[in-house]
Amino acid sequence: MQQTNRNNAFKKLFYVKQVPKIKEYLEEAVFLKKARADAESLKIPIVDDETGRFLELACYLLKPAKILEIGCGTGYSTYFLLKSILKELASNKSYGGYDSAGESVIGICKALESAEGGICKVNQSAESKAGQSTRGSNKVGNSKTQFSYTGIDLNRKRLDQACLFIGSLIKKTIEPCCDSKRIKTAIETESSRCSFEFIHGNAVEIIQAEQETKEKYDMVFIDAAKYQYPFYLEMVMDKLGIGCAVIADNIFYGGKIFREEILKHDANSVAGIQEYLRMVTKEDAFETSLFNIGDGISLSIYNKDK
Fold this sequence. Notes:
Number of domains: 1
Strand content: 15-25%
Shape: globular
CATH class: Alpha Beta
């Protein structure tokens, strides 16, 4: 029996070595399990893994060049949104190298203690080289593909954690920057230019203040205060590109949106989600589907010209 178990273990090990994708999957599973456990030990809410995989798949298929995340938290959901671009930046390394770069949330919190509570800035570097990008929608000088991510969160400590977490994955040194509400870095490679920005504050106010910018988003992920979902959507409407995917999490709100009697402290959140769903399902500008994944996900494709 022991010999049989050893033979089976050897076969599994051989198979993993022969199929790099399996090895990457197993490494990622360990990385995500630890990140989730650390977040839960600190009582920090994060998206469930089904929702994360949904975001990853959406980005893999749609290949958005400009992403806005409203409510980025500690960066756990951000990882899934950025996984494709992280893979491009890592070149031949497995998704940024979990063994060396995947800092745990607890480790991040320890780093924050020495940063005097300030928002963290990721230093720029052009040392990384990546393969040819498949994101062909946004080109900059010399035919380089341009990618940008913006994450907004009202909780400053969690935003700091997200900054450090994603900074660890793109392998950049972290420095405190206490006077700024914005943290932005750019990575230039032979084939692309990628920018990552984290903003502390109220998303409605931040988006409203940037209405004059002409840039359009290819994907928007909403996972913040539920009662403000309609306001988030209203504020970004003029910044949605044709075909933009607007994804909202927790639209079932623990099943509360289906109940006839709503507790008083849930009333505003339920009303906000219901109004949001009305907006994305009744307006001709969107084609919307609802998915029974996690606590409910809505996917709305913006097509104003339809």
